[in-house]
């Protein structure tokens, strides 16, 4: 047996183990894995497949010894139109979204912030936890969803399903956008594989069930990248001009949905200059300046409001950056280095993303050398790869690191990677992509189990402790109430009251302050046995300042993580 064939056998074994592992996860047998996290067999298998290239490149799909069922399966799958597969993927996405809802039945911290604002715009209930650095797009969509579904107020206990349905729509929009953009850059079937690989990633599936703005803003950013590529590659044509003038409109939509897209856009702009050169941009002439003008005009309302609230046109954006939960400048970049690419996209996605990085680097080398070896889309590949990598750098320096912040680079590298795998495997490409797509489909189910049993239990256990206390303190008959707790957005949603953290309460109503709690307000100071951002009992009594207080003790909830709760309620 030759060395390359030996590598091929090893690669096949590891690939089989990876597939078997995902099947076990998909059917709910992943409890034997630490934290339900699969072993990264494919990372090593990919290396062995490369080392085995002399063997499998000499033995094409039609060579002796290649099982005939591969040919039959390939022909059968090709009979199905691509649009049918796309519809199936969207149905799978909706099914996974619905299934995961049962494993995270309570709104989390970030979700509750946007949910409170949406409800505030709908019926005037206090928007607990809201800050000026928060974008308005998602709450606006949430308020529309509450209106469409006939939300009856916090006392009804509903509303969460309607809000989370908004992000299901945004997720479907994201996947459709990815497919259409990837189809324009590759082929329909390769685009389908890219969508499946993206959907199978842990980072994507973890946040898909939640009322957050990251997935929706990524869809808009991807459209921006596509429009910029078209504007540059079709410069001088009507299609290129339309793309350039449409780009700022989509940028504005992304910005008002999530202010954090500024870092992504900066990275995209730098990558565009790096890949195409400043002359290519300058050659766009008046159309470029017209696009900039549209962007500036669209930002005027934001600048006016930001100046009114913060004193600076960029105050709200800078405020958003200052909210980063980081220990030092650049710790986000260190985080991305530590999790790239496995923790961002899973086992299969990590291999594809790595292939995308290699493809972008190879394209850059060809462009740098010049000559006849340069491919027609090499500058595009350099642009996409550079944009993806620069996003990690810019966001890693500007804020803390989270997988949901970097969906755009994950998507770009996935599209590049699928194309690179197809080109590398040549005559084997149809069958390789068939296997990648099938494994990705199974991995979607496996990753859903990982999310349900590995990632969601912690926030669900916290909600099991906090939500019963919040419901016991809910506003009654329109009374004015304020909850002081370390979990202010969540308590705001489930009580219908305003809510502050202990630090915010001290800064606003503490001793020596000229501002006082409005007369008639019930203020409830909540302290958990294992809570966060809270003083001890003595500190709470100091805030009560000798006023008569009603004491409520609630025992620890079975399955909860915050322990028993003590509540001091004071009527001002």
Walkthrough of the structure:
With 572 residues, this protein is mainly alpha-helical. It has 2 domains: 85-102 and 163-431 and 446-455, no CATH class; 460-571. It is 67% helix and 5% strand. The protein has a 5-stranded mixed sheet with strand order 2-1-3-5-4, sandwiched between helices. Helix 23 (488-495) links the parallel strand 1 (481-484) and strand 2. The model has no long low-confidence stretch (mean pLDDT 91). Keywords: Cell membrane, Glycosyltransferase, Membrane, Transferase, Transmembrane, Transmembrane helix. Its main location: membrane. It comes from Streptomyces finlayi. The chain crosses the membrane at residues 36-52, 82-100, 162-182, 191-209, 215-232, 239-257, 263-281, 288-306, 340-362, 382-399, 405-425, 432-452.
Radius of gyration: 26 Å
| General shape | globular
Q: Describe the strand arrangement of the main beta sheet, using strand numbers.
A: 2-1-3-5-4
Percent helix range: 55-70%
Please tally the helical runs, counting DSSP H or I stretches of 4 or more residues. 25
What is the ordering of alpha helices and beta strands?
A: HHHHHHHHHHHHHHHHHHHHHHEHEHEHEE
Terminal residue distance: 85 Å
Total strands = 5
Strand content: under 5%
Query: Major β-sheet, in short?
Result: 5 strands, mixed
Q: Average the pLDDT over all residues and give the rounded result.
A: 91
What's the oligomerization state? Answer: single chain
The secondary structure category is mainly alpha
**Low confidence ranges:** none
- How many separate structural domains? 2
GO molecular function: pentosyltransferase activity
Main location: membrane
Subcellular location: Cell membrane
Keywords: Cell membrane, Glycosyltransferase, Membrane, Transferase, Transmembrane, Transmembrane helix
């Amino acid at each position: 047996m030759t060395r390359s064939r030996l590598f091929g056998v090893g690669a096949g074994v590891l690939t089989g183990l990876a597939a078997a592992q995902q099947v076990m996860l998909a059917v709910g047998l992943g409890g034997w894995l630490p934290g339900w996290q699969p072993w990264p067999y494919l990372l090593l298998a990919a290396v062995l497949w490369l080392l085995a290239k002399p063997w499998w490149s000499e033995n094409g799909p039609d060579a002796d010894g290649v099982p005939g069922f591969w040919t039959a399966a390939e022909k059968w799958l090709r009979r199905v139109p691509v649009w049918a597969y796309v519809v199936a993927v969207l149905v799978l996405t909706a099914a996974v979204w619905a299934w995961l809802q049962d494993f995270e039945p309570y709104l989390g911290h970030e979700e509750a912030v946007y949910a409170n604002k949406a409800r505030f715009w709908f019926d005037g209930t206090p928007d607990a936890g809201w800050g000026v650095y928060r974008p308005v797009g998602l709450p606006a969509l949430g308020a529309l969803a509450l209106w469409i579904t006939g939300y009856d107020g916090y006392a009804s206990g509903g509303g969460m399903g309607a809000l989370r349905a908004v992000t299901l729509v945004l997720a479907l929009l994201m996947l459709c956008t990815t497919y259409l953009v990837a189809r324009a850059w590759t082929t329909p079937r390769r685009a389908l594989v890219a969508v499946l690989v993206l959907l199978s990633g842990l980072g994507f599936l973890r946040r898909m069930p939640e009322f957050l703005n990251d997935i929706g803003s990524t869809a808009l950013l991807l459209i921006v990248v596509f429009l910029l590529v078209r504007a540059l590659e079709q410069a001088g044509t009507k299609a290129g001009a339309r793309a350039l003038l449409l780009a700022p409109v989509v940028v504005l939509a992304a910005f008002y949905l999530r202010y954090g897209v500024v870092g992504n856009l900066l990275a995209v702009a730098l990558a565009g200059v790096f890949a195409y050169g400043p002359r290519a941009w300058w050659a766009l002439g008046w159309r470029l300046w017209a696009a900039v003008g549209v962007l500036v005009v669209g930002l005027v309302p934001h600048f006016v409001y930001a100046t009114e609230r913060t004193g600076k046109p960029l105050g709200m954006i800078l405020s958003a950056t200052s909210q980063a939960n980081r220990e030092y400048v650049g710790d986000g970049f260190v985080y991305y280095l530590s999790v790239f690419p496995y923790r961002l996209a899973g086992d299969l996605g990590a291999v594809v993303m790595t292939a995308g990085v290699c493809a972008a680097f190879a394209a850059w080398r060809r462009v740098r050398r010049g000559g006849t070896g340069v491919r027609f889309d090499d500058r595009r590949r350099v642009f996409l790869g550079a944009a993806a990598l620069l996003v990690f750098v810019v966001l890693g320096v500007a804020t803390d690191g989270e997988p949901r912040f970097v969906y755009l680079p994950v998507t770009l590298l996935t599209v590049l990677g699928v194309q690179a795998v197809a080109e590398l495997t040549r005559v084997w490409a149809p069958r390789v992509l068939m296997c990648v797509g099938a494994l990705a489909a199974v991995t979607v189910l496996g990753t859903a189990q990982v999310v349900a049993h590995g990632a969601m239990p912690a926030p669900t256990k916290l909600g099991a402790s906090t939500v019963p206390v919040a419901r016991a303190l809910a506003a009654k008959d329109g009374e004015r109430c304020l909850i002081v707790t370390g979990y202010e957005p969540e308590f705001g949603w489930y009580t219908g009251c305003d809510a502050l953290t202990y630090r915010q309460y001290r800064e606003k109503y503490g001793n020596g302050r000229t501002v006082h709690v409005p007369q008639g307000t019930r203020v409830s100071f909540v302290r958990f046995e294992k809570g966060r951002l809270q003083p001890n009992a003595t500190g709470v009594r100091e805030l009560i300042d000798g006023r008569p207080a009603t004491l409520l003790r609630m025992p620890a909830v079975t399955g909860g993580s915050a322990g028993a709760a003590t509540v001091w309620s004071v009527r001002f």
